[in-house]
Design brief:
Layout lengths: L1 H30 L2 H8 L3 H18 L1 H4 L30 H37 L1 H15 L3 H12 L3 H28 L2 H8 L4 H38 L10 H7 L12 H26 L4
Helix pairs in contact: 1-2, 1-3, 3-5, 3-12, 5-6, 5-8, 5-10, 6-8, 7-8, 8-10, 10-11, 10-12, 11-12
Length: about 300
């Protein structure tokens, strides 16, 4: 009976997802014009589903204080209360409303992950494009430094640095961004090296164009597509890394709501057959899949492949 219920639930979820993706594509096509409209009209349903999920997460993150029925840190009942009309997902180990903390967790977890990814890309892409354009000792020095940092497992390195420098949100963002910027550096340097050897780059050098002009006007527009796709993938990795660190107790610290720490704090309920601790994990997985759907579509569009 349990297996049958699982398959029925999965079939219903799949049908609802397909219908929602089709409806999102129809509405988005109606509201847009020009190139965007043509792109959305031919977008696969998986990409439309991903964009819809990302939009829902964004709305929840922005309107968290309005949507959540209780404050983020308020103790409003006894611990581990069951699901009810008042507390839709029950309460946690301290008596805080789980549904409200799930909503606030969207703002905290996703917002911090986005800020970390943006900082990682700012550091990694600037240094990568600079290394590929200048070359010589600068390229060699930065590349060897990145090789050394990438030789250390990222999760262990992050645990070590957070143990040394503390677990504040600013420290968490900087540490994860610096570690992940090494991957961005490798990609941006690799794609830029394929551009700097082109004839139009040499012509720009002969015209006397400066380094900033070469990077922003000649190289960057030709490497934007793979960098945008990598931003989506890197966001997923950063998102999962922050959740893993929070689960281990070195990420976003209590009483701030965070999906990773919510799984750890309420893991005891799993032994009693309560699926509440799995809901934050499911929210993490759903956003990861949604972002990957959109990234896959963007990579397909950038590749120029046609079926």
């Amino acid at each position: 009976m349990t297996i049958l219920t699982f398959f029925i639930t999965f079939a219903v979820f799949l049908a609802v997802s397909i219908g929602a993706a089709w409806g999102f594509r129809a509405v988005a096509t109606t509201l847009t014009r020009g190139t965007m409209q043509r792109a959305l009209r031919t977008a696969p349903l998986t990409a439309c589903f991903g964009m819809l999920v990302i939009l829902i997460y964004l709305i929840i993150a922005l309107l968290a204080p309005v949507i959540a029925p209780f404050p983020e840190r308020a103790v409003i009942g006894s611990q581990f209360m069951p699901w009810s009309s008042t507390h839709w997902l029950g309460t946690d180990a301290l008596g805080r409303d789980m549904f409200s903390r799930m909503i606030y967790g969207t703002r905290n977890t996703v917002g911090i992950a986005f800020a970390t990814t943006a900082l990682a890309f700012l550091i990694g892409s600037v240094l990568g494009l600079l290394a590929a354009t200048v070359g010589g000792w600068l390229d060699q020095g930065l590349s060897r430094l990145v090789d050394v940092l990438m030789a250390i497992p990222s999760l262990i390195f992050a645990l070590l640095l957070l143990t040394i420098f503390g677990t504040s949100i600013l420290t968490l963002i900087v540490v994860i961004a610096v570690i992940d910027s090494t991957r961005v550096f490798r990609l941006s340097r690799a794609v830029a090296e394929g551009v700097v050897v082109m004839d139009y780059i040499e012509a720009a050098r002969l015209r006397g164009e400066g380094l900033w002009y070469l990077i922003t006007r000649e190289i960057l527009p030709n490497v934007t597509a793979p960098l945008v796709a990598e931003f989506g993938l890197r966001f997923c990795f950063v998102f999962l890394s922050i959740s893993a660190l929070s689960f281990l107790g070195l990420g976003i610290q209590p009483p701030t709501a965070d999906w990773g720490s919510m799984v750890r704090e309420n893991a005891t309920l799993i032994t009693f057959g309560d699926i509440t601790p799995l809901l934050p994990a499911g929210a993490i997985a759903l956003l990861t899949v949604a972002v990957n759907f959109v990234v896959d579509w963007q990579l397909y569009r950038a590749s120029g492949l046609k079926e």
